[in-house]
Amino acid sequence: MTSLSDLPLRDNLVGQQPYGAPQDAVRVSLNVNENTHPIPEHVAIDIVQSLARAVTGVNRYPDREFSELRDALAGYLGHDLGADQVWAANGSNEVLQQVLQAFAGPGRSLLSFTPTYSMYPLLAAGTDTAWIGVERPDDYALTPEGVVAALREHRPDVAILCGPNNPTGTTLDREVILAAYDAFEGMLVIDEAYQEFDTERESAVALLPGRHRLIVSRTMSKAFAFAGVRLGYLAADPAVIDALRLVRLPYHLSALTQAAATAAIRHADAMLATVADISAQRDRLAGALTELGYTVHPSGANFLLVGGFADPEATFAELRAQGILIRNLSIPGHLRITAGTEAETGAVIDAIAALGPGGARG
Ligand SMILES: *Cc1c(COP(=O)(O)O)cnc(C)c1O
Questions:
Q1: Contact 227 CB / ligand 1 (< 6 Å)
Q2: Is residue 219 in contact with ligand 1, taking CB distance under 6 Å?
Q3: Where N6-(pyridoxal phosphate)lysine occurs, residue numbers (predicted)?
Q4: Distance 193 CA to ligand 1 centre (A)
């Protein structure tokens, strides 16, 4: 049988592992930070009607510029953004890949602060971009001084600040973003995949005027409860959007994706109605695990990074066997848990409580 090592694979892909969070059909799935609430039925019906209309036209290619969707996204983001400042693709992973295709690539570099989103180094490898992972301080919180020092030392072509940060939940303060922008000459991406959960901070979209190297990346996959549709987007200067047009594949957003996303945004309030609930479940989970003796890192997102597990892999496997999926990101002593519905969150609390100290089998 042929194996990968028999193929003339690109050097920088040799030895890499594909992104691969388990997708078991379990009763409690809290491992990829989805909104676990189903979308409201009246919204589903409206989306189906929009899809039905779109289907009748799929003999033709879709609107390459997805103008209606960009208008809708601009309206959703607010801050007087125009459609010419908004871009979208099949998930913010694709948006970020396009950013790297346009502004990074061979001979160039991408910097971020680890632990952070595991796709960044994979997107770097896929675009032949050098990856620079700079370790966060012990509390995972970025400071203007730390960020400026790293950017001045490494002078990356692209830097990504993830706020709230996956997998630590750490929020990102505006002073850090402003200091970072002024510290280097490359493109600065703020990954706001979890922004809707952070009620204390305004989106970095507010910082766009006068900053043409700033990109704010968002997604409909998390708070917006739309992960299955694959719709990520960004806001930036119109010139940045022009750069992304050079690398996107023609018609990359299908007519069905455009129709579904545009319809969902019409119901933004209903789609986001569960956010406060999820945050309350996150806080409940934090309280319960703290009481059990675990270390819970402060989170502005819909998940928690939890320390104090004697053997994270064993705890992960034990919960998986019980039909509860959480995430082991190979951070020593730690596991990441998404806040779900009241019932799901209760199930994971009960399962961990039933284990012995440190998550050992009781
Ligand atoms: C989940 C996530 C994304 C991307 O999700 P898409 O589904 O591709 O939009 C991007 N960034 C971070 C930090 C994430 O956690």
A1: yes
A2: yes
A3: 222
A4: 6
Question: 193 in ligand 1 pocket by Cβ < 6 Å?
Answer: yes
CA dihedral of residues 287, 288, 289, 295 (deg, nearest 10): 20
pLDDT by residue (tens digit) across 209-264?
Answer: 999 999 999 999 999 999 999 999 999 999 999 999 999 999 999 999 999 999 99
Amino acid at 72: A
* CATH no., domain 22-37+274-359: 3.90.1150.10
For residue 221, the CA-to-ligand 1 centroid distance in Å is 7
How buried is 143 (Cβ within 10 angstroms: 0-12 exposed, 13-18 middle, 19+ buried)? middle
Q: Which residues contact 6 (CB under 8 A, 6 or more apart)?
A: none
Which of these CATH numbers, 3.40.50.800, 3.40.640.10, 2.40.170.20, 3.10.180.10, describes 41-268? 3.40.640.10
Residue 311: CB atoms within 10 Å? 14
pTM reported for the whole predicted model: 0.97
